[in-house]
Amino acid sequence: MSVAFRRDGDEEHLEPKFEVPIPPGPNLVTARGLDLLKSREAELAALVATQTEETALNAAKRDLRYVQQRLATAQLVPVPDGTVAAFGCRVDFTLNGNPRVLDIVGHDEADAGEGRIAFTAPLARALLGCEAGDFADFGGQPDAIEVTAIRPI
């Protein structure tokens, strides 16, 4: 019989499960972001306690390890004064003439659909350090962004 038709078990064909990658750089968090991590840790700990199926249990444990690592390295950033676009600010701006509002937050709190972007995102990096009335380059276009207002989240 050909080796191609021989199979000892399904285990050799399963994809390996890796740890959830930790974003590089500092783990900056807002107060809301820290609360979200703490509540996620409690949810995952409860889930681990109730899982009986091995694959689901291992996935829950992996996610719990990720959240615990993020909590251990979390650096709570003080609320900014809102005069300059910084971590923890809500920034109103126009991008190529279209008005937008974004919050600059940490990786674990970021949700672009909800208007929250990580401080390391290219758009956030373009906004950081700007004041209301400033213009910033973005996407290879000079003065593509006009900052109209800044306030703490």
TrEMBL record:
Enumerate the transmembrane spans.
Answer: none
The record's section on Gene3D superfamilies has: Transcription elongation factor, GreA/GreB, C-terminal domain
Question: Keywords assigned by UniProt?
Answer: Elongation factor, Protein biosynthesis
Mind telling me which InterPro entries this protein's record contains?
GreA/GreB_C_sf, Tscrpt_elong_fac_GreA/B_C
Gene Ontology MF: a single term = DNA binding
GO biological process: one example: regulation of DNA-templated transcription elongation
Q: Which residues form the Transcription elongation factor GreA/GreB C-terminal domain?
A: 84-139
One of its Pfam families is GreA_GreB
Q: What is this protein called?
A: Transcription elongation factor GreB
**Organism the protein comes from:** Novosphingobium arvoryzae
